[in-house]
C-alpha cells in the first residue's frame, strides 16, 4: 500500500498512530518516514509541537486518484475536525499490588524520573505519572480512548522499569486526578483574544476554575479544567452548547457585532435564547455558562470604557476617587 500525504495525516493525526506503527504497516524505513514529515512541515501540511506531537497545518493536502472519492465522501468527519478536542495535562495516580527491592532502591536514589512523553514520581504506596503529550479527537470520548490506549501500553514498561505489579487478575488502581479538555478554534476564545480579556469561570460549589480560555500555542482553545469533572463539562456542556450556537449563527454574530453594548446585546440575544430554551435545546447549565461568560466579557469592556471616560489627573478636574 502506498503511503500518501493524506494517509500520513489520517494515521498520524486523526487516528493518532505512532511513527513506528505507520512505518511497520506501510513497510518503509523510519528515515524515509521522518524525511516525509519534514517535507510536509515545510509545505505547511503539518506543524509540530514538542518532540513528537503533530497537528494539521494551515494548508490542506489535496487528495489525488482513488483517495479523492473517499475524501469527498468524508465531509462529516472533516467538519467534526474543524473544532477538534485536545486532551492534555493528564496526571495519574497508580497504586501497586507489589513492589520489588529494585523499586525501593530507585525510590531512595531519586523520586522523579523523566521519560519521553511522560515523567514518573515514586512514592511508598503508589506511582504518579505526568503525561506530557496531547490526545486529539472529534469528542472527549475519542480523546479518552486514545489516552487509555497510551496508558495501557505504558503499564508493562512501568512494571519492568521500576519492578512493580500494577495489574493483577484484571484489577488495577489507576486513577486520573487531573486532566483538561480544550475545544480548538473556538469562536468565544477568539472573541476574548480580540477583546484582550482573560476568561476563567469558577464552579459555584467548590470555587475551583472549571472553564478558561487557553491562549497558548495560538490554538484559540476554550478549556474545561475542573479536577473532578473536566470530561463531563466538555462532553455535556461546552461541546454540545457550541454545536448549538453554530447551528444558530445569529447568536454568534450578535456576540461579535454588539459586544461593546451590554444592554443592547442582551436584548438582541433574548429572543434567540428564549426560543432555544422553549424548544429544550439549552440546558440550565449551558444557560448559566453563557450568562457568566458574557458577564466576564462585559465586565472587562466596561472597565476599559470607564478608564477611557475618567478625568485625567492634572487637567484641572479632580480625579474620580477624590471626595
Description:
- This protein has 323 residues and is α+β, with helices and mostly antiparallel strands.
- The chain folds into three domains: 1-59; 89-179, no CATH class; 184-308, no CATH class.
- Helix content is 48%, strand content 21%.
- It has twelve helices and 14 strands.
- It has helices at 5-14, 19-26, 30-43, 66-73, 75-80, 101-109, 140-162, 187-194, 230-247, 249-257, 262-278, 284-309; strands at residues 46-49, 53-56, 85-95, 98-99, 112-115, 118-122, 126-131, 135-137, 164-165, 167-168, 171-183, 200-202, 209-214, 221-224.
- Strands 3, 5, 6, 7, 8, 10, 11, 12, 13 and 14 form a ten-stranded antiparallel β-sheet that branches. A two-stranded antiparallel sheet has the order 1-2. A two-stranded antiparallel ribbon has the order 4-9.
- Helix 10 packs antiparallel against helix 11.
- The model is unreliable at 62-80, 258-263 and 308-323 (pLDDT under 50).
Topology, please?
Elements: H1 5-14, H2 19-26, H3 30-43, E1 46-49, E2 53-56, H4 66-73, H5 75-80, E3 85-95, E4 98-99, H6 101-109, E5 112-115, E6 118-122, E7 126-131, E8 135-137, H7 140-162, E9 164-165, E10 167-168, E11 171-183, H8 187-194, E12 200-202, E13 209-214, E14 221-224, H9 230-247, H10 249-257, H11 262-278, H12 284-309
Antiparallel strand pairs: 1-2, 3-7, 3-8, 3-11, 4-9, 5-6, 6-7, 10-11, 11-14, 12-13, 13-14
Helix pairs in contact: 10-11
Amino acid at each position: 500500500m502506498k503511503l500518501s500525504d493524506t494517509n500520513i495525516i489520517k494515521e498520524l493525526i486523526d487516528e493518532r498512530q505512532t511513527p513506528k506503527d505507520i512505518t511497520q504497516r506501510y513497510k518503509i524505513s523510519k528515515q524515509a518516514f521522518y524525511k516525509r514529515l519534514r517535507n510536509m512541515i515545510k509545505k505547511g501540511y503539518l506543524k509540530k509541537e514538542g518532540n513528537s506531537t503533530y497537528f494539521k497545518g494551515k494548508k490542506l493536502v489535496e487528495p489525488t486518484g482513488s483517495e479523492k472519492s473517499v475524501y469527498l465522501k468524508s465531509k462529516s468527519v472533516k467538519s467534526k475536525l474543524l473544532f477538534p478536542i485536545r486532551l492534555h495535562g493528564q496526571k495519574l495516580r497508580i497504586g501497586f499490588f507489589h513492589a520489588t527491592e529494585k523499586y525501593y532502591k530507585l525510590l531512595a536514589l531519586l523520586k522523579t524520573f523523566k521519560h519521553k512523553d511522560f515523567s514518573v514520581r515514586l512514592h511508598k504506596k503508589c506511582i504518579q505519572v505526568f503525561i506530557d503529550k496531547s490526545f486529539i479527537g472529534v469528542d472527549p470520548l475519542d480523546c479518552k480512548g486514545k489516552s487509555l490506549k497510551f496508558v495501557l501500553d505504558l503499564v508493562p514498561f512501568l512494571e519492568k522499569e521500576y519492578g512493580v505489579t500494577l495489574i493483577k487478575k484484571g484489577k488495577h488502581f489507576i486513577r486520573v486526578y487531573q486532566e483538561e479538555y480544550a475545544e480548538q478554534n473556538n469562536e468565544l476564545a477568539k472573541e476574548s483574544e480580540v477583546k484582550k480579556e482573560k476568561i476563567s469561570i469558577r464552579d459555584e460549589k467548590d470555587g475551583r476554575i472549571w472553564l478558561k480560555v487557553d491562549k497558548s500555542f495560538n490554538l484559540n482553545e476554550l478549556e474545561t479544567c475542573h479536577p473532578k469533572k473536566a470530561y463531563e463539562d466538555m462532553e455535556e456542556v461546552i461541546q454540545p452548547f457550541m454545536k448549538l450556537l453554530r447551528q444558530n449563527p445569529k447568536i454568534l454574530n450578535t456576540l461579535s457585532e454588539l459586544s461593546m453594548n451590554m444592554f443592547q446585546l442582551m436584548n438582541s440575544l433574548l429572543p434567540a435564547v428564549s426560543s432555544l430554551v422553549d424548544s429544550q435545546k439549552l440546558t440550565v447549565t449551558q444557560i448559566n455558562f453563557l450568562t457568566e461568560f458574557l458577564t466576564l466579557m462585559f465586565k472587562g469592556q466596561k472597565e476599559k470604557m470607564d478608564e477611557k471616560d475618567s478625568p485625567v489627573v492634572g487637567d484641572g478636574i479632580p480625579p474620580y476617587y477624590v471626595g
